[in-house]
Amino acid sequence: MCPIFLLLTTLSLTSSCSTTSLTLSTTTRGLRPT
Question: Mind listing the UniProt keywords for this protein, alphabetically (predicted)?
Answer without folding.
Answer: Signal
